[in-house]
Amino acid sequence: MKLNNNYRSNKLKKLIIALFSILTINAWAQKETLEILTSAACYEGPCCKDRIEEEMQFTRGVTAVDLDIESQVLTVTFKTKKTDADKLRKVISLLGYNADDVKANKKAHDNLPSCCQHLEFKEED
Predict the structure, then answer these.
(1) Has residue 67 been placed in a domain?
(2) Is residue 15 part of a domain?
């Protein structure tokens, strides 16, 4: 009888540990999908799309990325423990493109191929 109770107790402990592990792993890997309106509008080829998607793939926490050139919407899936929406918008800005309300970095924009340079910047006094 005592052996049977120890067996049940060990089995219950293993079950609790397994459930806790699954819940912990699931909470740790929380993902979010975000849509960002960009200023990417290259009509001479996929250069804007390729540039943004490639850079975003190497951005910490990003797990999936897709830029729809027609709508200029970038869809990004990312791990919330690794990055956030503001950091992603900043990366896009540093590439030379607007990202929602974050304006493009002028120097980066000026270094884009001519087919991708269509933003106008106000001159600083």
Answers:
(1) yes
(2) no
Domain of residue 92, residue span: 31-116
What DSSP letter does each residue of 59-111 carry, written as one string?
STTEEEEEEETTTTEEEEEEETTT--HHHHHHHHHHHT--BTTBPPPHHHHHT
**Is 99 within a domain?**
yes
33: left (phi over 0), alpha (psi -120 to 50) or beta: beta
pLDDT tens digits for 64-119?
999 998 899 999 999 998 999 999 999 999 999 999 999 999 999 999 888 888 87
Instruction: Report which residue type is found at 89.
Output: R
Q: How many domains does the chain have?
A: 1
**What's the CATH code of the domain at 58?**
3.30.70.100
Structure-token pair, residue 120: 């106008």
- What are the tens digits of pLDDT across the range 2-45? 556 666 777 777 778 777 766 665 555 688 999 999 998 877 77
